[in-house]
Amino acid sequence: MASNLAPIPELYVSYESAQKLKVEAGTLVSHDLTPRQICDLELLMNGGFNPLKGFLSEADYDSVVETMRTQDGALWPMPITLDVSEKFAETVELGQDIALRDQEGVILATMTVTDKWVPNKSREAEKVFGADDSAHPAVNYLHNHAGNVYLGGPVTGIQQPVHYDFKARRDTPNELRAYFRKMGWQRIVAFQTRNPLHRAHQELTFRAAREAQANLLIHPVVGMTKPGDVDHFTRVRCYEAVLDKYPSSTTHLSLLNLAMRMGGPREALWHALIRKNHGLTHFIVGRDHAGPGKNSQGEDFYGPYDAQELVRQHQEEIGIEMVDFKHMVYVQEKAQYYPIDEVPEGSTVLNISGTELRRRLAEGLEIPEWFSFPEVVRELRRTSPERSKQGFTVFFTGFSGSGKSTIANALMVKLMEMGGRPVTLLDGDIVRKNLSSELGFSKEHRDLNIRRIGYVASEITKNGGIAICAPIAPYAATRRAVREDVENFGAFIEVHVATSIEECERRDRKGLYKLAREGKIKEFTGISDPYDVPESPELRVETEGTDVDNCAHQVILKLEQMGLIAG
Ligand code: PPS
C-alpha cells in the first residue's frame, strides 16, 4: 500500500478571515475549553479527525456509540463531544454561534450549535469502553469530570492552540504529509506510544519497519494519556535521547497532541484513522493497545489482542495496513529480543514490567542495560527520584471530632523531627479560615473546599514536600479526584480516622453535635449530611482505645512500608 500524500481538508479559515472573526467573536457567548477539549479541537481543526467537521451532533453521536460509524456511514469509533455544564447549556440556543476559547481566554474557533442534549453516559460507557466501571479512566472522566450536557455542531477554525514546548517536533497532518513528500517516502509505518522507548520498543519498531519495508514514524502522544504515566516532557527528552539509535534517513519523530481515552480496541481503530489522516501507510498495533488497566474486579477490560482483531477487520476500509506484534521479551542466551511466541525452546526469558520498572525507579535500584538505554534511564531518574526523596500527601478523612487534627499534628511533629522535607499541615479548620473563608457546608462548597486542599497538596507534592491534610472530606468521588491530582506527582496516602459517629457525638469537643441535634447547625456530617466511608484507604486507624501517639506512629509505619521515608 503506497500513500496518497495530497493535503487533507482542514477546518481553518484564511488568515484574513480569522482576524475578522476574532473581532466579531468578541460578542459571542464563550466556552472555556477543558484540556481534553483543546486536544480534540486541535485535531478536528487540523484534519487529524477527518472526516469530522465539528463536535458530533446527537444523531452522529448515537450512531458512533452504537455502530462505530457516523450517520452517513463513515467509520468513526470514538465520540468526539463538547461536554458543558447545565448552567452553560442554558445560555445557548440552537443555531447560535459560540466562541471556543483556551484556558487563557484566547479564541481558537467558533461553533454553530446545531444540537444540545443530555447523553446517557452509562450507555456511552458500556458501548464505547465495554463497561460502566469507573476504574476505567475514560468512564471515570465521563461520570466525574465531563459536563452533563453535550453540544454539537460544525467548527470554524481560527487558530491552532499555542504550544510553547517542543514546537519543532509538532506536526499537523498536512505538515507531515508535506515532509513525507519532500523525503520521497511512500511507505511509512507509525509507532504510537505513551511510554518512554526502551530496548524492546526499539527492537519492535525496527522489525516493523523491516517487515513493512517502510520508513518509521515515532508518533508519541503528548496530549493526555493514562493518569500516572510519565509526563510528556520527560518522555520527549527520552525519545530525543534514543533518536540517534535509529537511522536518521529513514526515521522521524513527531508529537501528536491527542487526548487518549484508553479505549482498547475502539481506540486502536481510532488511532489507525488518525494515522491515515497523517499520511501513514502502516500502523503498529502491539499487545493490549491503549489498555486501561484492571477493572474494579481486578480483571483486564479487554483481551490482549482484541485491538489487533478489530483493526484487522477494518484496515482495508481505512486504507492503512496493520503491523501486528506480540509482546517482545528478552532471551538471555541469545542476548536479543523476540516476540513471545517465537522464543527458542528452553531459553531464559527476561522481562521487566511497567510496574517493576516504577518500583526500581522508586527504590533507586539497578535497571539493566538489556532492558533500557542508559540515556533513557538517566532522564527517568531525573524526573522520578527514589521514593524516599519524593513529595507525598497524607490525607486524613473522618467525622468532625474523630481526632483527625490531633493525629495530623502529631504526625507533622514526628516528620519534622526526621527532617529532610518541608511539611505543611492543611487542617480543616485552618483551611476554612485561610483558603476557603467564604464557603459553607453545601455539597458544592464542600467539594470546592476539598478540591482547593487537593490543589495545594498536589503542588506541595510536586515540589518535593509533604502535605498533611485533615478535612472531613465526606464524598468518595471528591476524595478520588484529589487522589488523581496528587498522584500525578507523588504518593497519596488516604487515612480513614474511623471513630464512630456515636463516639464523636459523645466527645463533642466543640459542642457542635449538640447544636446539630437541636437543628441549629444544618447539614452536619453524620447527623444531617452524608459521609461515604472510604472503601479501601491505605490505612484505617481506630481511635477508640488507642492513643494519639500510637495512631500517628501507625501512619509512620505505613510510610516506611511504602518506601516514602527511609527506615
Ligand atoms: S468538609 O466537608 O471537608 O469541607 O469539612 P471541613 O472543612 O473539614 O470542616 C471543618 C470544620 O467545620 C466544622 N463544621 C462542620 N462540620 C461538618 N458539617 C457542618 N455542617 C459543619 N459546620 C461547621 C467542623 O467543626 C469541622 O471541624 P473538624 O476539624 O472536622 O472537627
**CATH classification class of the largest domain:** Alpha Beta
- The portion of residues assigned to helices is 25-40%
Distance between the termini: 59 Å
Q: Pairing-aware structural class of the strands and helices?
A: alpha/beta
Largest sheet: 7 strands, mixed
Strand content: 15-25%
Question: Any guess at the CATH architecture of the largest domain?
Answer: 3-Layer(aba) Sandwich
CATH level-4 homologous superfamily of the largest domain = HUPs
Radius of gyration: 26 Å
Organism: Limimaricola variabilis
Family: Belongs to the APS kinase family.
Pathway: Sulfur metabolism; hydrogen sulfide biosynthesis; sulfite from sulfate: step 2/3
EC number: 2.7.1.25
Question: What does this protein look like?
Answer:
By secondary structure, the chain is an alpha/beta fold. Helix content is 38%, strand content 16%. The longest helix has 20 residues, at 443-462. The chain is globular. Strands 1, 2, 3, 4, 5, 6 and 7 form a 7-stranded mixed beta sheet that branches. It has 3 domains: 15-157, Sulfate adenylyltransferase (Roll), CATH 3.10.400.10; 167-256 and 262-383, HUPs (Rossmann fold, 3-Layer(aba) Sandwich); 387-561, Rossmann fold (3-Layer(aba) Sandwich). Helix 9 runs antiparallel to helix 13 (374-383) and helix 14 (404-418) crosses helix 20 (548-561). Helix 11 links the parallel strand 11 and strand 12. The model has no long low-confidence stretch (mean pLDDT 95). Bound molecules: 3'-phosphate-adenosine-5'-phosphate sulfate. 3'-phosphate-adenosine-5'-phosphate sulfate is lined by residues 400-401, 405, 428-429, 432, 441, 446, 449-450, 471-474, 510, 512, 521, 523-525, 529. Residues 400-401, 405, 428-429, 432, 441, 446, 449-450, 471-474, 510, 512, 521, 523-525, 529 line the site of 3'-phosphate-adenosine-5'-phosphate sulfate.
